[in-house]
Amino acid sequence: MSTPSAPPSAVRAVLARDKLGTFSLLHFSLTAATPLTVIAGGVVVMFAIAGQIGIPLGYVIVAACLWLFSIGYTTMSRHITNAGAFYAFIARGIGRVPGVGAAWVAATAYCAMQVSLFGLLGLTAQNVMARMGVDVPWWGCALAAWLLIGLLGTRAVDINAKVLAVLLAVEIAVILLFSASNFLNAADGVPLGALSPSALGGEAAGAMLALAVTGFIGFESPTVYGEEAKDRRRTVARATVATVAILAFIYIASSWSIIAAVGENDIVEAATADSSLMFTLAGDQLGAPWATIGEVLLLTSVTAAALSFHNTTARYLFALGRERVAPQWLGRTSLRTCSPVAASITQTVISGLVIVAWAVLGLDPLVHLFFYMSTSAGIGLLALIATCAIAVVVYFARNRRGETVWAARVAPLLSVVALVWVLWLSVLHFHTLLGVEKGSLLPILVPILFAGLALLGAGWGAYLKWRRPEVYAGIGHGAKAPLVQSAETELAEVAGGR
């Protein structure tokens, strides 16, 4: 006797269980941060923009802010498990209506961050192929990577983690090699002046701190995989805090080593003149092939980051579909791998359309796609992190839930002050981050766009409260939402032939 098919109304709410340990979660969060891209590109740009040598100290400050945030954030994750982490935390902390607004911002920002990487990826691959005597347009390389990432995005989550583990291990090994070489070839010894408070100041320093935060984006992703983690009460917290610590060490050591290799008095001029300064130093110190190796690894780094952000975006879309805040079909997972296949394919289609549009319109893949879009997405994500910090404070203010005063009250409150300050600096000096004149349209338009998305999302949340209270009641509750629970029961009954 054949098994009856599942009813059309059923939502498959199950992601893979007990698949990811601490190290697997680390692979997703560290690769999303693209440490090699940050060091080879972001750090050099910061020296040029800020015009000062206090970049290592800036990373110390930013790491301290994010560490404070991580304490309350991971403490809250022990009580709330949802693939749409920021969305769920804000919904359960501040309220369902602002939670839906946050969901719209999160889905857009993560999607934009992932899509932006195809610009850098395509251009880097084009340069590597050109060294081999092969002429391929950037968009051809980007589409090849797009196809690979789209296929991996529908596979089991532990397979993705294994792919990222290999790419990440090689990437970090080369970063440490380049940094050690810089210190061994120091121009004037170890530059202790780079850690002096006097080395970091002025208006440009505010923009630099904001840009430094974007280098850590991805550290928050372990909570997105909470439903798929082993012993989630421990692994998520360990992976999040470890990500902040590892990235801080890499960024501080690497930026400090570049100053050591060039010299305190010459670093700003050298960074302004050579945007590939890190690879140039590697070629001079270790031999010309190492500059090429660095470029190839930059390619794998960006590919790994695009895969990581693809998975994060897909899980946000899945979370919204599962709770019926977004179209319900986004909440369907593969029966075989339990991956959010519908949301993954949706993200693949969106990113493919953007690549094709950029190619047809002849837009610059580095400036207009990678730099502008990733920096803009960073502003949206920073606003989400600051709002989530407020949600943590509000959530534990109502009930400390047996957590320590430090983890539930003090650290979250300090993180709110720190993150709101950094967000203010980011918006205030956004024109400096983009490298455009003050008063230009883009620095004004981006914050307005994200504010508009938040308001539209909140409006949709208010509509759900008014017209669809059964959906509204489950916002932020994930697999425990009433509609999801009833749909899963129905699915189980039909599958069992009852």
Automatic annotation (TrEMBL):
The keyword Signal does not apply. It is found in: Membrane. The chain crosses the membrane at residues 25-50, 56-76, 97-124, 136-157, 164-184, 204-225, 237-259, 296-318, 339-363, 369-397, 404-424, 444-464. Keywords: Membrane, Transmembrane, Transmembrane helix. InterPro entries: AA-permease/SLC12A_dom, APC_superfamily. It is a multi-pass membrane protein. Coiled coil: none annotated. It holds the Pfam family AA_permease. Residues 44-431 form the Amino acid permease/ SLC12A domain. This is APC family permease. It comes from Glycomyces rhizosphaerae.
